[in-house]
Structures are given as structure tokens and as C-alpha cells.
């Protein structure tokens, strides 16, 4: 491959583009890899398309290596299969829907579980047809409320989605482990520093679930690690250790006037000032905050839900949504219509709504909380004595320093990452929905179980750019770089010709070469562009050409050395390993 | 590549599938290349995906070889650019449109002229940036009223679309010739017998236009050739030679009672029986048939139009639509509301609607036609004397035996083909719409002109299947076959192992191998499946394995010969050239 910059569709930008809030987005725009074409939709320019294709190839190779078979479904699909699974309703506004000229309902598929399941139903009949791993690399659509970060969260994006179909739970685990290892190989080849974290499976249904997160400041996903063990989890999946059951007998519940204390801070200040319950060491963690939300059940109406969390924590709406999925929640605001819910003074005792409590609100724990009357709070409100939650819920904000749920001795640290892969043991949700049965080895019908394995291919471009850049520009890992070597003709005339000759020689040897043969462009601009574009090896054909030398620059280390032009092919090839 | 049929997602069908009306569709379904997933939407199964990828690779290689640069646009696009070009309105029901969660209008792009033009506007500024050839291989959408033929006419399909941007008409011609040659190389490599025919550019606008048609009985496009010269044209593009102007003076117009003659046949019979105008040799070609249509102008309402054609011809609605594009026409049916248009007895003399005539209705020609009164016709109705058309139109059906418009001495023959490519000199329709100007060499602004070049990639799969099959199944040309060789383990035990060993050896040597290692499947079924799947070379590991021999079968010639197993790699490699 030989790309000449004199004819390449490329326009690098010196200025920071407006509306690009994350480094990868800014750099991919500035270096001419992508352009915005629509809200959440991007055009791949020639250099970007090369990187995208490299990543796709790596993903495909590793999927085939573990027995994956590639198929390709339409993106535009009729409604019916998504009604069977109830996802047409569950997704709601999050998917693009449309009608064809006959008025039939269609959607732009956000994922294809239904289609994979139907295909397997049509194409298999016996246990001999299993296990199966099917995948596709396909354009996906989601009507994101807030597209952000360029390729990080778009409305049209490229995904590799895969599903395993096995007959037993043991085979599912085996397929899962095989795909998990393939994913590790993929992300290693992509040069992505990543952490595998426990995750929730979200609206997909299913059980065991792990995310591959590329570590990045700009990541949307907050995940935790442990100071003492190898526990790592998406915050949605963090479980809160319940305190041991208390046997101490708390004094009876007392109600106090606490005027003008609608917030936890004002309540704690007043409680200490008045030594409520005989204490003046109240902290926010001793109070029980009760947050009212409206839960939206897809296709089944709304419900008022009250969530109790220790007063030193907020409710984390992402954790809450994950806990409620496929339902979603928004903050309740119709207090006028519910006089029993006294805003700022709600307590769980005698509450007339479903009440779910944080695991820390264990049986026997005593709390300072609302008395369900304006301007009044209660102390010694004991879980299991004065109120009994309808269940527990993981919805409280996870904080650095929280105890590790895995080892119990370490504490949690917080990091941010970009979700680049998600694998989980989906189970039989879809084979149940479509009643997929095949003949078992014992002659009886058996229902296959599924694993689900996704990689954000276009998002990976952004994740790599996010991890591999410096103040001068991008710096691609070799396996995904748009070229192996970037040759710069620093001067004119003979230097351009020599650069093109060398480029032709390298390309003939199988290398992918980008050569800057632009006329009327200064050497300084060419160097700046080369650093922005971010290919690891630059060969400068410059002032020592007459002596038969070119300069080899290493974009990573900054090293420069003069090398005989005739040695360049060997040196470059050797450096590629 | 090594594909084992024991694990491959494949189920061949013995029975003809219902609803598959053309051979390619039937065979691609039966041999397990595709499955229907939606109206006009197909799922690529593993074997089909391999063929599709082979074709894509060939197209890409030939595009890059002529300097094409690959980009990729979103398929889901906002309405605005398509309003600028007026195509949002022109396409009407033919495209899929939708609204996002904010109520903004989007479309699933049928083609991307607007986006290519906007990209060039953003990425170029000077004559130095030209010429440019940009292409993409992308999923396209059209809300076809009548999807048919499986992959031949779908609603979601894979296209390679390319545009050249040049500054002068000469450079456009040069780019056009270069792409035309590239297309010839593509279709030759794909093994497609094809004819390049003159065509109309349709709703795209533009001038010079040629289609690449793969010869096939089931093709939707009728095209003509000449018995004497190399003229070839889509019927829409055929021009009708006008007869020389007549100087003979026809007698005056006479009106006759012609009761119960609403059809041409009944009129001719009566005219001869009564010797109207003193003749009894009337034929349908002497009559002038006047067909009323409603023309739908996109965004600008409807118009009644009358079309005059010799009575021995029908109006061809495809030719009519091509002549009226971007407007479309349907047969007029509101005669009750237009008493001036007397159904069955319409004549062009004094007509109160726009009237366009076939070129054969030349000045001085005399006709037997309606008298605009029920049950009456007129003879000696002379064009230019008794009526003057508002213009000519090419809407009459083209018939075998018509004179060739190119050489004048030959006559036309009719064939059918599948449109696999379309190239045309688009001109400045889109650069005008978006006001694209760049700095010219003389310091003045210059507006680029465009060429448009499309290949139906998924349709090519069907076209190849249509041309390459026999009664036993498909028979792929080597360059697009899903594998280079198909190894059949005819028996059990040692034969399966030997087949897998050979397959591994061939795959290690770079060949793409499909091996039928299915247990519990008879040799006969395996042979039948191999012929259905259609890979040119089959190696049978069978009864002579003990002597060290395998049988090599040539799917094309039917030749079979025994070859030492150790010679197979060399023989296969040599046969691939």
C-alpha cells in the first residue's frame, strides 16, 4: 500500500475543533481521520477507514480462531421478532423506529439477539449442531439522548456482536471462557490497556457478566478496584457488604420537632446542636435518606418507589437503572399529589409506597430519619422493628474507600474507563421467547442457552486514540496504525523523487507506506502533520540525501538517527518484528 | 482458511424454496448462502459472507488501482442536505424516512451524492486538490414497492458508490474513461458476462451515462443490440429515428362515424371494412394512439399529459418514467372529470392538455386517430397542419426489428440483463446545489464537476449465481468462490482423518479449504451438497485411500481422475494459476 499525501483526501487542522470535548475526538478530527456527518454520526476519511479496517480484521481473526462463524444480518428489521422478546417496548425511545411505505413497523437494530436466535432455530435441529459461535461486524443504531465524545457514544456505530449457543450450562461457561480469552487477545493486539470488571447485564437479561474497560479519564464508566485483592467491577455491579446483624436493643423511637431541616446537612447540624437522642456526634451516615422515584416499567405503566440510603450517600441513577432494568427511573416530583410523602421529612415507618433499602440498612440498625410530618424527624428508627423494607437495592453511590465486597479487608479505589467489550452468560431468555428446542443426545428436546459477546469496533478507534497520544498528536500501536512508515520529503526536487522511490520499494516489499510528497509545503509543516497523524516510524528524506542518508525518527521515543537509504527497508522491516 | 462442514452453519435444502422465483435466489437459498430476514432484506450465512467479501475485495482493489480513496459515510442522515438537492421530495415514498427522539427528520440514504459533495467542499480549497475519486462500500436502503429476486432487488443492499471530482469537462471524461476501464476489470474478474449499454441517468441528473448489464434471462432491464453495429442501449435510452419530413400533401382531414371502436384493433378492422379515406390497407401503425397519463412532479403537484404513439405500439411506462424523471407518471383514470378527453376517441387536433408525440409522429405525417367525439375518428390528421405537438417524447415500446438509431442499417435485437454497474457524467448538479467553488489555477473560483460510478455488490452475488449454475447447483468462478477446494471424506474413520490432514496441509499452504467431515452423512449426500455449493474443485477421499490415491473432480467439466494424495497440493495450486 502506498498513499501519497499530494493526492490524499486529508486536511489537518491546527486549531482545536469546537464541540470536541475529549482528546481522542479532537485529535481524530484534527489529524483527518473522521468528520462529523450527523448528530452522533461520523464519516470515516481515508486514514480513519484504514484504522477501522485494521481493527475489524484483528477482531475477525480472533473470532475465527475460536471457531466463530461470520454472518451478517440486515440492520433494518421488522418489528415482529422484537415484539416476541418485548424489546420493541423495552427500548422505547432508545431505538430508531420507522414505517415502510405500507405502514409496517420497522426498527434499526441496536442489537440482534432475536435474529441470531431465529437463525439458529431455522438452521439447527439436533445436539450434533452444537456448540455454535456466530458473529457479525455490523453497523448498529441507537437513538442516544446525548451522543458524546465523537466515536465514544454515537447513534450509528460499528459493533462486532457474537453469540454462543450451547446445550448445557457447563458448555456455556466453556464457550464464555474461550471468548473471554479471545477478547483479551483482541484488546492486547489493539494496544488497549484494559481491565475486566464484573458488570450488570442490563436490559439484555442474563447472569454472569463482565466488561472490558479501556482505562481513560474521559471514560463514561466508573469502575472500582480493591487495594488488597484483584476485585474489579463496574460501579453498577458493586455489591455492598451488609453490616452484621445487630443484637443491641435500641431505645424506642422518638419524634422530634426539627424545623427547617429539609436537607441532611441541616438535619445533622440541628441534631447535634440539640443532642437529639442524647447524642451530639451525629454524622450524615447516621441518618436515613429516603428518595422518591418514579419507576417506568416498559409497557406496564409507572410506579412510585422510595429508596432508603445512608444520608452520606446520593442515589446513583446509573446504579439505580441497572438495578431496575429493564425498567428505568426518574426523580419523583408530584409531591402535591401525594400528601403522604412529605418532602424532606420522609421516613420508612408506615410508608405507603414500595420501599427498598440499601444493604447497609440491615435488620437492627437504628437511624435518624423523617417522621412523615413537616418539620419533624425521628431517632431510633430501627430496621426490622419500626419498619421492614420490601427488599434491598444497590442504588447508593459507591465511594472510594468503601470496603471491598470480595476480600473484605481492602478498600475500593475509583477509576474511569471506556467500555470496549461486554461478555455475559445470557442464558435462555431468547431461546425461551422463541421456543427454540433441538433434539438432545437422549432423544428428548433440549433448549440451547446463549452467551453474548460484543466489541465496540468504532469506539475502539477512539479508545486507542485516547490511550495513545501526546501533546503533538496521535501515536498508533503498530497493529492498528494506518501505515507502517511515514516518509517525509523534507525538501523539493530530488528529495521528493527519492522519497517516492523509497516508498515504492517499501510498498513492493509488503509494507504500508504513507509518503508526504506534497509540493509547496514546508518541511516544518510536514513534520508537524506527521506527528499529528501518529505513525510510529518516520523516514525523513532531507539534506543528507546527497550522501545517501535519510533520518529515521521514532515517534514514541523521539530518537533520531541517520541511516543509509539502502538500509531503510531492512531497518523498518526489522522494527516491525 | 479451513472450514469444516461438521461445524459449519449450513443446511442445504433438497426442495425448491417457495417464493423464490429466479434461479439465483433458489440456489443461494438451497445451498445455504443466504436466508430471508425481512421483506427485501437478507441474512448472509457463512458461505455467502465469504463470497460477498471476495467481491468487495475485488471491487476495492480495482478502485484503489485507479486512485480511488475509500471513505465511509453514515447511512442514517439528517434531512437538510437532501432538501438542498431537492431529493428528499423527489424520492418521496422510495426512501425510508424517520424521526429521531427530538422529532428531527432523517433518512436512510439511498445514495450519498450530497454527502460526497459536502465532504469535498469541506476538505478542498484549491485546484491542487483535484482530481479526486472517492468511494465507499456501504449498506444502502430503498423502500422498493416490489422487492424481487432475492438479492436482485432488495430494500437493504450493499453498494460500492464512487464519485469523481474534476475541474473541467475534459478531466471528467478522463476520469470517466478510467473508471469505465476499472469496471470492465472488476466484472471480468467476477466472471460476469456483461454488456455496456447507453443508459439514462434517471433521477440523478447528468449527461453521458452507461450501464453494465450482466446478461440474464431474469434481468429486469431490457436492452437492445444492433444486428449490424456495436450499438447497445438500455431500452430507456433508445432513441427513435424520425422519418424524413414528408412533402407530399395529404388530403384534408375527414371525420367518420366509427361506432364501437375504442381499441386500435377494432378501429383498423372497421377502417378497412369501410375503406376509410379510400384505403383498405390500414394497419395499426397507421393509427395514432393517444394515451392520457397523470404526471406527478415531486413537490409541485400533478399534470395531465397526453402522449401520442403509433397504434402498433404500447406506451412503455419505464421509458416514460425515464423520459419524465424526476417526475413519474401513472395512467389517467378520471375521464368523468375531463369530458374533453373522450376515452377511446382522443385525437391531438385541438386537444386541451399538454401533448407530446413519439418521434415517428414527424411533421407532415398523416394519421387515423380519434375525433374527440364518442364513436368518431378522423383520417388525414396531419402533424404540423392539423395539430402541433408540444414536443417529442421517447415513451413508445421498443420492439425487436426496430431500426438501429446508430448505424441506420441494422435492426434492434432484444435481450435482458441485470444492472450490475452504472457510470455517468453527473456534471455540476450537486456542486451547484451546494455552491462548491475552489480556487482555480488562474486565481478565479472554479466549480468542480462530478462523475458517478456505482456497483451493486450484493446484487453481483446474485448475478454471478444467475450466470454460473447448472441443474446440479451453483458453480462459482474461482475469484469469488467461497473456497478454492472442497474436500469430501466419502467414508468414515480413516477417510475423515485423511481428509482433515489434507485440508490442514492445503490451508497451511494458503488455500481456502472447505472439508466435508460430517459424520453420519452418506457419500452420496456429500457429493450432492458439494455440487450444490458449487466450488470448482472437489477432492474425494474415498476407497482408494489405502493405495494413497484420492479422486479429483472438476465441477465444470465433470472430469474425474485419481491422483496420489501427495500430489494434490501441487495439482490444486497449479490449477488455480
What this model shows, in words?
Two copies of one chain form a homodimer. Chain A has 577 residues and is an alpha+beta fold. The longest helix of chain A is centred in the N-terminal third of the chain and has 21 residues, at 169-189. In chain A, a hairpin with a 5-residue loop joins strand 15 (288-296) and strand 16 (302-310). In chain A, the strands form eight sheets. In chain A, strands 4, 8, 9, 10, 11, 12, 13, 22 and 25 form a nine-stranded mixed beta sheet that branches. In chain A, helix 1 crosses helix 10 (457-467) and helix 2 packs across helix 10 (457-467). Chain A folds into three domains: 48-73 and 108-238 and 414-466, Bira Bifunctional Protein, Domain 2 (BirA Bifunctional Protein, domain 2, 2-Layer Sandwich); 254-392, YbaK/aminoacyl-tRNA synthetase-associated domain (YbaK protein, Alpha-Beta Complex); 483-575, 3-Layer(aba) Sandwich (Rossmann fold). Chain A is globular and about 95 Å long. Chain A starts with a strand and ends with a helix. At the A-B interface, strand 2, strand 3, helix 2, strand 4 and strand 5 of A face strand 2, strand 3, helix 2, strand 4 and strand 5 of B. Chains A, B: Its EC number is 6.1.1.15. Chains A, B: It catalyses: tRNA(Pro) + L-proline + ATP = L-prolyl-tRNA(Pro) + AMP + diphosphate. Chains A, B: InterPro entries: aa-tRNA-synt_IIb, aa-tRNA-synth_II, aa-tRNA-synth_II/BPL/LPL, Anticodon-bd, Anticodon-bd_dom_sf, Pro-tRNA-ligase_IIa, Pro-tRNA-synth_IIa_bac-type, Pro-tRNA-Synthase_IIa_type1. Chains A, B: It is an enzyme of class 6 (ligase). Chains A, B: Belongs to the class-II aminoacyl-tRNA synthetase family. ProS type 1 subfamily.
Amino acid at each position: 500500500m502506498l498513499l501519497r499525501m499530494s493526492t490524499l483526501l486529508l486536511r489537518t487542522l491546527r486549531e482545536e475543533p469546537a464541540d470536541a470535548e475529549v482528546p481522542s475526538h479532537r485529535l481524530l478530527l484534527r489529524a483527518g481521520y473522521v468528520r462529523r456527518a450527523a448528530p452522533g454520526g461520523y464519516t470515516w476519511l481515508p486514514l480513519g477507514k484504514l484504522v477501522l479496517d485494521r481493527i475489524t480484521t484483528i477482531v475477525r481473526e480472533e473470532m475465527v480462531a475460536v471457531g466463530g462463524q461470520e454472518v451478517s444480518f440486515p440492520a433494518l428489521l421488522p418489528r415482529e421478532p422484537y415484539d416476541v422478546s418485548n424489546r420493541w417496548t423495552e427500548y422505547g425511545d432508545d431505538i430508531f423506529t420507522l414505517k415502510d411505505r405500507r405502514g409496517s413497523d420497522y426498527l434499526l437494530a441496536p442489537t440482534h439477539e432475536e435474529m441470531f436466535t431465529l437463525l439458529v432455530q431455522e438452521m439447527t435441529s439436533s445436539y450434533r449442531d452444537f456448540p455454535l459461535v456466530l458473529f457479525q461486524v455490523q453497523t448498529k443504531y441507537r437513538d442516544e439522548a446525548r451522543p458524546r465524545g465523537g466515536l465514544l457514544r454515537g447513534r450509528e456505530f460499528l459493533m462486532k456482536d457474537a453469540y454462543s449457543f450451547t446445550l448445557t450450562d457447563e458448555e456455556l461457561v466453556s464457550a464464555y471462557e474461550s471468548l473471554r480469552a479471545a477478547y483479551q487477545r483482541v484488546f492486547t493486539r489493539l494496544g488497549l490497556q484494559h481491565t475486566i470488571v464484573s458488570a450488570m447485564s442490563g436490559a439484555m437479561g442474563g447472569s454472569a457478566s463482565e466488561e472490558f474497560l479501556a482505562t481513560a479519564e474521559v471514560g463514561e464508566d466508573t469502575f472500582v478496584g480493591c487495594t488488597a485483592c484483584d476485585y474489579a467491577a463496574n460501579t453498577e455491579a458493586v455489591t455492598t457488604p451488609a453490616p452484621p446483624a445487630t443484637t443491641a436493643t435500641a431505645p424506642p423511637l422518638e419524634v422530634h420537632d426539627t424545623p427547617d431541616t429539609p436537607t441532611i446537612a441541616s438535619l445533622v447540624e440541628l441534631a447535634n446542636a440539640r443532642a437529639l437522642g442524647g447524642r451530639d456526634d451525629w454524622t450524615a451516615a447516621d441518618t436515613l435518606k429516603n428518595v422518591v422515584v418514579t419507576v417506568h416499567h416498559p409497557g406496564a405503566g409507572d410506579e412510585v418507589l422510595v429508596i432508603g440510603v445512608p444520608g452520606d450517600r446520593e442515589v446513583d441513577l446509573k446504579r439505580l437503572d441497572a438495578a431496575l432494568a429493564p425498567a428505568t427511573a426518574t426523580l419523583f416530583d408530584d409531591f402535591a399529589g401525594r400528601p403522604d410523602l412529605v418532602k424532606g421529612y420522609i421516613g420508612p415507618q408506615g410508608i405507603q409506597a414500595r420501599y427498598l433499602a440499601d444493604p447497609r440498612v440491615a435488620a437492627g440498625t437504628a437511624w435518624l430519619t423523617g417522621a412523615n410530618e413537616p418539620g419533624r424527624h425521628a431517632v431510633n428508627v430501627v430496621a426490622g422493628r419500626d419498619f421492614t423494607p420490601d427488599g434491598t437495592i444497590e442504588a447508593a453511590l459507591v465511594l472510594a474507600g468503601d470496603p471491598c465486597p470480595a476480600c473484605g479487608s481492602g478498600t475500593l479505589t475509583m477509576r474511569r474507563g471506556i467500555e470496549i467489550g461486554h461478555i455475559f452468560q445470557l442464558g435462555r431468555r431468547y431461546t425461551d421467547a422463541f421456543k427454540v428446542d433441538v433434539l438432545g443426545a437422549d432423544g428428548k428436546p433440549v433448549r440451547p442457552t446463549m452467551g453474548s459477546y460484543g466489541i465496540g469496533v468504532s469506539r475502539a478507534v477512539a479508545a486507542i486514540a485516547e490511550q495513545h497520544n501526546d501533546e503533538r498528536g496521535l501515536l498508533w500501536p503498530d497493529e492498528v496504525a494506518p501505515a507502517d512508515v511515514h516518509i517525509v520529503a523534507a525538501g523539493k526536487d530530488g528529495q521528493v523523487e527519492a522519497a517516492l522511490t523509497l516508498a515504492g520499494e517499501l510498498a513492493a516489499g509488503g509494507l504500508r507506506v504513507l509518503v508526504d510528497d506534497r509540493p509547496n509545503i514546508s518541511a516544518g509543516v510536514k513534520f508537524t502533520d506527521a506527528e499529528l497523524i501518529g505513525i510510529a516510524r518516520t523516514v525523513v528524506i532531507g539534506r543528507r540525501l546527497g550522501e545517501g542518508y535519510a533520518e529515521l525518527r521514532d515517534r514514541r521515543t523521539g530518537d533520531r538517527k541517520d541511516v543509509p537509504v539502502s538500509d531503510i527497508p531492512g531497518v523498518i522491516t526489522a522494527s516491525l518484528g
